[in-house]
Amino acid sequence: MAGRGTDEHPHGADRLCDIGDRVYSRAVRRGRVPRRDAEPVPCLLDLALLHPDPDDMDWLVPTAPQEVMTRLLRGMYDEVSASQRRVGSAVEAFERYAGLGRGARSPQAFASSAGEGPAIRVLDGVARIQAAMDEATQACTTEVLTVQPGGIRREAELSEGLHRATALRGRGVRMRDLYTHVARHGQGLHTYLELMGDAVEARTLDEVTERLILFDRTVAFIPANAERSMALELRHPALVEYLGTVFERLWRLALPLAAPLPDTGFEGVSHRERSIAALLAEGHQDAVIAERLGISVRTCRAHIARLSETLGAASRTQLGVKMAQAGLDGPPRSAAASASVTIPDRESRTAR
């Protein structure tokens, strides 16, 4: 009975269930209750709030409320005393371990420069991210490097960081931004660059990495989750240097915003469709291709349909064969490489 009461009524005498409260209250008022009244609440017996009447075992009599209160207070005192002992033990252990490390530099100290805080800090929430970015902007004196995925930049996204960009321009800080080729079609980006003048230089690629903002090769910010509601603030010199190297290599591969996209060398196939074909050949799904190129899934599928029509493919399987025959199953060549390669005419391509 004790086990059943514990499972079905997991509480103490200080917080009885509703039916237990009613039965015990009735027992206190009347002096006793029939045993059958307590059958739904075995907790009253388990907690010794009711016990059999020695004169008649079919009845149960209550334990005096004063005795119950004394018992509760004694139990609470024992729990508090035990908690205090645990806290004391934890403090002693902490002091002992802290003493072992006195005079030695922590890994965080080795990983970051003096006065710069932790080498890696998690920023939870947009407000904290914005505050950290504002702080880094104020300390920046030389350059800011950014990678901006996601296709066409909305006006709201560009306006969000405009105050930081304006402050940086005022101090002569150089800014370089990497976007996807799709961003070229957004008027907001062109307006932003006209406003910033020579302070900002932008280039584009078929696809870029996740978002990155790097200040003075000293502190970098990257997303910490898919929703971008969390970010990592990185000050570890090796990490920051690595991210800077990645940016520079992407920058050399990218095309200036003012430069036209290179011709694909395939009649009727646009540069974007050439990129889609290469990703299709790698086995990526439409949604993945759309995300990597910064376009919607609907737009991606429209380009695939146009590519199929251009190559005369009636199915996705046949499209793969046609792309391979036409040489569209690999990554697009650079502009220089395209100029140095003789592209066969359409008739000879389809015959291969």
UniProtKB/TrEMBL annotation:
Q: Which residues form the signal peptide?
A: none
Q: Which residues form the HTH luxR-type domain?
A: 262-327
Annotated region Disordered: the residues are: 326-352
Determine the domain of life of the protein's source.
Bacteria
Q: What is this protein called?
A: LuxR C-terminal-related transcriptional regulator
The scientific name of the source species is Streptomyces pratens
